[in-house]
Design brief:
- Helix content is about 35%, strand content about 15%.
- It is globular, with a radius of gyration of 19 Å.
- Strand 1, helix 2 and strand 2 form a beta-alpha-beta unit.
- Strands 2-1-3-4-6-5-7-8 form an 8-stranded mixed sheet, sandwiched between helices.
- The chain is an alpha/beta fold.
Length: about 300
């Protein structure tokens, strides 16, 4: 076993926060912020993370936190970025810590606009596949057939593929990551921190209560999501270079069996989900293979011309 500790000067999420016991949200953010460091400002909209961090001035985060409305995270981050640049603080990172409800759904308009402008921010979607801190209602990130408070018979539509949608904006860096694959997560945070422009990380956050998991099963669910191909790990640079970072080694039934939200599934529904995952995996492999060819378009500039520091 390799023990990966976080140096005290890099630990930006303190103990005593308000997360549920065994929460993967808190564990993930702890490692993300360790990679971001102390010279940063966090934008945290209404979400599980807003509850976990707590209100100012009693925040569990050591860095400043700005809590905007649910739909405006990327717009607020854009404003903070420009204000910092006006002060000459170009090295201060603006990091968004938003849930899937505020990213896939309510905040997508602002996020897409910020991506079109290539605003210089690190946007982290803490994807627990539902509106979990208001009763586990479905979002467009909720997978097909999953039980939620608003889909008691199972969701009838498939999960939105936001990672590929963000890659289509041709921003410098888009990636999926999971704290169950910690070395990969840390590498991707470090890589994103070495770039300028909009960087988007989609982070899978198994929700113990919303997914129907035991208190100690969050990491197991995160690991099985990757191994079954339900949440493949990959990265996309400049919208053109695709790299797959995981392998599909298990049937999705192994992943579903761990979760109470899928307890109602029939064998036919499990088979349909397997077919859906297999098709998505095959498409991802084709994209990675195709991106090995020479680029037809120049790479996206790391910093927009109108935002480059003077001198």
């Amino acid at each position: 076993m390799t023990v990966r500790s976080i140096p005290e000067d890099r630990a930006m999420l303190c103990s005593g926060h308000a997360a549920c016991p065994g929460c993967i949200d808190a564990l993930t953010v702890r490692h993300v912020l360790a990679g971001v460091g102390a010279d940063a400002i966090a934008v945290v909209p209404p979400s599980c993370m807003a509850i976990i961090a707590g209100p100012q001035p009693f925040s569990a985060l050591k860095i400043p936190v700005y809590q905007p409305t649910l739909e405006s995270s990327a717009a607020a981050a854009s404003g903070l970025r420009r204000a910092l640049d006006a002060q000459g603080r170009h090295s201060t990172t603006v990091v968004v810590l938003a849930g899937d409800g505020g990213t896939y759904d309510i905040g997508f308009q602002c996020l897409s606009s910020a991506a079109e402008r290539n605003e210089d921010m690190l946007y982290c979607c803490l994807d627990n596949e539902g509106y979990m801190n208001t009763g586990a209602q479905k979002s467009s990130s909720t997978p097909r057939h999953a039980w939620t408070g608003s889909t008691p018979a199972g969701k009838t539509s498939r999960k939105k593929n936001l990672t590929e949608i963000m890659a289509a904006h041709n921003v410098p860096y888009v990636a999926t990551a999971s704290v169950a694959h910690l070395a990969d997560l840390r590498r991707k945070v470090d890589k994103a921190m070495g770039l300028r422009g909009l960087r988007f990380l989609n982070l899978l956050i198994p929700c113990l209560d919303g997914w129907g998991l035991r208190d100690d099963a969050g990491l197991a669910a995160a690991r099985l999501a990757v191994e079954s191909g339900a949440f493949p790990l990959y990265e996309v640079e400049d919208g053109a270079r695709w790299t797959v970072n995981s392998a599909k080694t298990r049937p999705v039934a192994d992943y579903l069996a761990l979760q109470g939200r899928y307890r109602h599934l029939t064998a036919e529904q499990v088979a349909a989900l397997q077919d859906e995952i297999d098709a998505g995996w095959a498409r991802l492999q084709r994209q990675a293979s195709a991106s090995a060819a020479p680029l037809a378009m120049p790479a996206t500039p790391a910093v927009p011309a109108d935002r480059a520091p003077a001198g």
